[in-house]
Design goal:
The chain is α+β, with helices and mostly antiparallel strands. The chain folds into 2 domains: 162 residues, 3-Layer(aba) Sandwich (Glutaredoxin), CATH 3.40.30.110; 120 residues, Up-down Bundle (Glutathione S-transferase Yfyf (Class Pi), Chain A, domain 2). It is built from 10 helices and 11 strands. Strands 1, 2, 3, 4, 5, 6, 7, 8, 9, 10 and 11 form an 11-stranded mixed β-sheet that branches. Strand 7 and strand 8 form a beta hairpin. The longest helix has 26 residues. It is globular, with a radius of gyration of 19 Å. Bound molecules: glutathione. The site of glutathione has 12 residues, from helix 1 and helix 3.
């Protein structure tokens, strides 16, 4: 039985990003179905507030955000590598573009065209995830036009190489694919992709990869696993001393883009790109929650 537990839901594009890497590595993993909308009473005991999906659980360790989830899976299962070392920086930069820029162009038009397959109140739930000063944002028409431009960039690269960074699948493909795959319920977006032959063939290649060796467990089983495990507090070899985030201090962690629910915990260790905090929850006991530093506002609480 694998100890990788992915909290996800079927229509979650960011979960697909992780699943494609699990497939590439041929890994066995367990899926827990979480709700598409808040509240998430079987998730927040683990995260302490963070509501976004997916979340990776390994015993009493909780990993938030796909950037960190995939980095951690790579540490645990380095072979086969998701991305060759000489392409890692480029893949990270493309993934950041896909996760933020391309996703922001795809999200609104897709959701508006797929409303009949989404739960009632979905729009209210997603509107509440935006920061108060977010404003109305661009029109649907503008977002579609920008998504088309994004697809042209991908088509140009895929005319030269079968995958975005050459002959093999990398993180760049996982990230771009999850956005493209998400638009599959929206006829306007499907038409854009269908008009681009190299992109369409690449979509099919990645769909054919599957999702690794998946089995499903219940949210309660996942909570039981966390409660019965103990977090390992030994810092990793790349832990650093950072005067702005001292070990033992209490810190508030908040996404800087959307879904800004706050997690609070005691700092156990920090590295240049990750933070691990300890929390106690009455349902699951002691857990350690891990965040990437990129994309998160970290604020020390007054002592
Ligand atoms: N930066 C985050 C973004 C995750 C994200 O936006 N996930 C979507 C689902 S695919 C989400 O959480 N939507 C709101 C929700 O599920 O409550 C990551 O890479 O994990």
């Amino acid at each position: 039985m694998s100890d990788l537990i992915l909290h996800q839901y079927t229509m979650s594009p960011f979960s697909i990003k992780v699943m494609k890497v699990l497939a590439h590595k041929g890994l066995t993993w367990q899926a827990v179905a979480q709700p598409m909308m808040a509240p998430k009473p079987d998730l927040t005991p683990l995260t302490g507030g963070y509501r976004r999906i997916p979340v990776l659980q390994i015993g009493a360790h909780i990993y938030c955000d796909t950037t960190l989830i995939l980095r951690h899976i790579e540490r645990l299962h380095p072979s086969p590598a998701c991305t060759p070392a000489h392409l890692q920086g480029a893949a990270d930069i493309i993934a950041d573009w896909a996760d933020h820029r391309m996703f922001s162009h795809a999200a609104m038009p897709t959701v508006f065209e797929a409303l009949d397959v989404l739960p009632p109140k979905f729009l209210e739930d997603r509107a509440a995830m935006q920061p108060a000063n977010a404003g109305a944002g661009p029109s649907v028409e503008h977002s579609v036009a920008q998504f088309q431009q994004d697809c042209l960039l991908l088509e140009r690269q895929l005319a030269a190489t079968p995958f975005l960074l050459g002959d093999g699948f990398t993180l760049a493909d996982a990230a771009a694919f999850h956005v493209i795959g998400f638009t599959g319920a929206a006829p306007t977006m499907v038409k854009i992709i269908a008009g681009l032959p190299k992109l369409s063939a690449w979509v099919q290649r990645i769909e054919d990869m599957g999702e690794g060796e998946r089995s499903d467990i219940s949210p309660q089983q996942a909570l039981d696993i966390a409660r019965e495990a103990r977090p390992q507090e030994t810092p990793p070899v790349d832990a650093i001393v950072d005067a702005s985030l001292p070990v033992g201090a209490r810190v508030r962690i908040q996404p800087d883009d959307y879904g800004q629910e706050v997690t609070t915990g005691e700092i156990v260790w920090v590295s240049k790109d990750e933070l691990a905090v300890k929390r106690h929850d009455e349902t699951v006991g002691d857990v350690m929650v891990h965040y990437p530093r990129a994309g998160y506002v970290l604020t020390l609480e007054a002592a």
